[in-house]
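HUMAN:
Could you generate one sequence with tokenized structure?
ASSISTANT:
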Amino acid sequence: MGAELAIGDWLCFLDSDTLCIGTPEWDFPRDGIYGTDIEDRSYLNFKVNFDWPEGWIFLFPREVFFDMGKFDENFVFACCFGDLDMSLTAKKLGYEVRELTPLPFGHRRLATKTIIDPNHWSSNRAKDMAYIKEKWNI
């Protein structure tokens, strides 16, 4: 895994359809994880007690990422519920979940989805939803 080979104090994970439009100059507390587009997701057929960041960009202090146990590889598409899983793990371990701003990145929303067969996308998203609901009892 690339995170284990990284030498920085911070680990930043980006979707394949993310564009860098500036130079990040961040100085954040090291007591949590950072993402973007924290919003209400009441459209889902389950509820958690907080809004979580979308995972198209995630920033972790290196030690926090490894303390959390890295990403759960049981998800078919980490982009569907991997962000929620990491946020729930962070909360469970006592870390903060914060919005990442300012943001020198742009996101071409759903660009990745356009190259995946729609049936494959829907079927695996449903599997991931069932998995996260079972894993976290939500």
User: Anything to note?
Assistant: Residues 118 and 127 are 14 Å apart (CA to CA). The first helix runs from residue 2 to 5. The chain has a mean pLDDT of 79.
